[in-house]
Design a protein that fits this description.
Shape: globular
Number of helices: 12
Largest sheet: 10 strands, mixed
CATH architecture of the largest domain: Alpha-Beta Complex
Number of strands: 10
Mean pLDDT: 93
InterPro entries: Glyco_trans_2-like (IPR001173), Nucleotide-diphossugar_trans (IPR029044)
Number of domains: 2
Structural class: alpha/beta
CATH superfamily of the largest domain: Spore Coat Polysaccharide Biosynthesis Protein SpsA, Chain A
GO molecular function: hexosyltransferase activity
Keywords: Transferase
Order of helices and strands: EHEHEHEEHEEEHEHHEHHHHH
Pfam families: Glycos_transf_2 (PF00535)
CATH topology of the largest domain: Spore Coat Polysaccharide Biosynthesis Protein SpsA, Chain A
Radius of gyration: 20 Å
Helix content: 40-55%
Protein name: Glycosyltransferase
CATH class of the largest domain: Alpha Beta
Strand content: 15-25%
């Protein structure tokens, strides 16, 4: 097989009901370049692995399997599988999502090939809910062109729609990313560290299953997502390659501290909220922290 221009990256774990549709949507891509599908199965026990093996036997030149002997968890499986991607670009499609545009990766690769100052290209998508209702994502607030300065505040890129330059992660990031329940956001920030830009293509190319699996559990507790993102930013802040992004990282860290104060109070975790507030009290952000702490505490008490 010739070296692929694009590696399609898929994580799988106990998704036998969805993975056929996901794999077929990738194999149906029409391109004028070679691409590969790299599937990282995290020791599935429901038949998902056997489905992957059957596909690999049918398409040995197209599909690479990364089969874990034991369950590593999402972060470690992500890092291990991404390391096996050989393409110049990487596209993500998890085993419970799927693509609906046969020219998805062709259009994105064309854009990135012609625009070397861009590191990421993503598209619009449908959100599919457990009720089977499907709605297009509201793209009105998604910037057409953005960069590190915007993405460092929140991840507005749906992973099933993304393509990014395959810029190998440093060991200093892999060590802590292995512990995460999701790794796409820090990967994007790494790709953008050298002032590359992000392009949003309005085409609807994919379907994202919303409120399924790990993401559904995390969304039930807003403070948990805030804690994870806050820790991601703290880790990135300590990495040498991000030294010229310190100002943006500090502003984002402040935003997440304030958000956590509000979330903790809303969830009646008053001690955690006060601890975060205490950290702000000894910083130059005392006034801002006090305002949000007292307001969120008041709202929490009166809503009880």
């Amino acid at each position: 097989m010739s070296i692929p221009l694009v590696s399609v990256f898929m994580l799988a774990y106990n998704q036998k009901d969805y993975i056929n549709q996901s794999i077929e949507s990738i194999l149906s891509q029409r391109t004028d370049f070679p691409f590969e599908l790299v599937i990282g199965d995290d020791k599935s026990t429901d038949g998902t692995r056997e489905i992957c093996e059957n596909y690999q036997r049918k398409y040995p030149d197209k599909i690479t399997l990364v089969l874990n002997d034991k369950n590593l968890g999402i972060g470690s499986n992500y890092v291990k599988t991404l390391d096996r991607c050989k393409g110049k670009y990487v596209a993500i499609c998890d085993a419970d999502d799927y693509w609906i545009d046969s020219y998805k990766i062709q259009k994105q690769a064309n854009f990135l090939e012609k625009n070397q100052n861009f590191g990421i290209c993503f598209t619009n998508n449908y959100n599919l809910f457990p009720s089977t209702k499907k709605y297009p994502r509201n793209a009105k607030k998604i910037p057409e062109i953005s960069d590190f300065q915007e993405l460092v505040y929140s991840n507005y890129i749906a992973s099933v729609t993304v393509m990014f330059r395959n810029d190998p992660l440093p060991g200093s990031m892999k060590s802590w990313m292995c512990e995460l329940p999701y790794c796409d956001w820090p990967t994007y920030l790494w790709v953008l560290r050298n002032n590359r830009k992000v392009y949003f293509m309005p085409d609807i190319t994919a379907v994202y299953r919303k409120d399924f699996g790990t993401s559904a559990v995390l969304r039930n507790q807003k403070s948990k997502i805030g804690e994870i993102n806050f820790q991601i930013l703290k880790n990135i802040y300590s990495i040498t390659e991000f030294e010229d992004k310190v100002h943006d990282l500090e502003k984002s860290l402040l935003k997440y501290k304030i958000g956590l104060i509000s979330s903790y109070n809303k969830e009646k975790k008053y001690f955690k909220s006060f601890k975060m507030f205490a950290k702000l009290m000894i910083s130059k952000n005392f006034k801002v922290g006090t305002k949000f702490y007292l307001y969120s505490l008041k709202v929490s008490i009166f809503e009880s």
